[in-house]
Amino acid sequence: MKETQKAKIQRLETENEELKAELESLSTKYSELLNHADDVALSSPAYKQLERELFIQQEAAKMYRRKFEKCEKVRYSQAERLEALQKLIDEREVKNPRNAGRKPKLTEAQIQEIFTLRKQGQTIKALAEQFNCSFGLISKILKAE
Questions:
Q1: What's the whole-model pTM score?
Q2: Tens digits of per-residue pLDDT, 53-77?
Q3: Helix (H, G, I), strand (E, B), or coil: what is residue 137?
Q4: What's the CA dihedral at 126, 141, 113, 78 to 10 degrees?
Q5: Residue 127 burial (10 A CB sphere; 0-12, 13-18, 19+)
Q6: What is the pLDDT of residues 74-87, one digit of tens each?
Q7: Which of 110, 122, 136, 144 is within CB 3.0–4.6 Å of 117 for a Cys-Cys bond?
Q8: CA angle in degrees (0–180, nearest 5) for 139-143-145
Q9: How far apart (Å, rounded) are the C-alpha atoms in residues 76 and 68?
Q10: Please, is 142 exposed, middle or buried when counting C-beta atoms within 10 Å of its C-beta (0-12, 13-18, 19+)?
């Protein structure tokens, strides 16, 4: 038996209404499942493990930040000390305010060491070789005492 156009439209509209109701039902179930999945995901062991690892990484980052800050402080203090030492070196290198004359071959510390070693019995020749200077310079320094 042949279906009339009117009957076919009614049948399709009924099917359409049923499909809409089913779609709405499925959409509601999907939303519920999605919310439930979020709750399950947040309470899952894997998520909790990720949270713990994140916390550990944050604590490690804080620790490294503190170490970095300490290193920065040390670096700045060493830079200040280096500048002070450089000033001392510059002062020692200048013989007089006009910067005239020859610079001394040996420092005061080396001269004191020469006196000490000579008192211990080293020869003038050995001292000259050790300090890479002439026999005459060592003699002159020792006579100035």
A1: 0.36
A2: 999 999 999 999 999 999 999 999 9
A3: helix
A4: -120
A5: buried
A6: 999 999 999 999 98
A7: 122
A8: 130
A9: 12
A10: middle
